[in-house]
Amino acid sequence: MHTRRVASWLLGAWMSGSLLMFLVATQNFRAVDRLLTAPAEPASKLIQSLGPDGARLLLRYHSSELNRWYFTKWEIAQAALLSFLAGWCYRAISHSRVARFLPVAILVLVLLERFLLTPEIVRLGRLIDFAPAAPERAQFWRLHGAYSAVEALKLLLGVVLTAALLRKTKRSSGQVHLVDEADHRHVNR
Q: Strand (E) positions, the chain?
């Protein structure tokens, strides 16, 4: 099996999942406003019974709980994907020792999120869900900002890793080719 291709596939799956999670998280909250703006008739009656503020509060709480669940599960999936990716990249990238360990660095960042940031964000989020003036709100947003910064760093490292995987070497005859490090054979491109 071609190690670069497998590593590239794993990297693409991880980056796609990360971008999808960004989309899901933001759209869950935007959906609340869309729903309240133009609810279906049966939902409209329920919204009226709760009042617009109560309905918005309940729907935002639901969106928050969905995001908490999605992020927790995605962090577990990321850890698995990145563990496999680290093994494949170690075999696939011989020209850069730094690039060989980029998946490990990304994995460490995921574990930082999973065990330090996410539990605290979830705890604080549940405290402020129904208390708009909660003193924990500022700390929640600081942690949320830190989480977003870690996400941006992970994606940046993913882009650098992509470049390392796509890096071509030159053969002495001048032909451009990729080297499949696992079986040490040349694959012309």
A: 169-170, 176-180, 185-188
CA gap 167, 67 in Å, rounded: 36
Chain Cα centroid distance, residue 50: 35
- pLDDT of the residue at 73: 98
Instruction: Please give the Cα distance from 128 to 133 (Å, whole number).
Output: 8
Q: Which two tokens stand for residue 144?
A: 């949320």
**Residue ranges with strand state E in 29-162:** none
Instruction: Evaluate whether 92 touches 10 at the Cβ level (below 8 Å).
Output: no
Give the pTM: 0.84
Contact partners, residue 67, CB within 8 Å, separation at least 6: 24, 25, 28
Q: Residue 187: pLDDT band by 50, 70, 90 thresholds?
A: low
Q: Which amino acid is at 173?
A: S
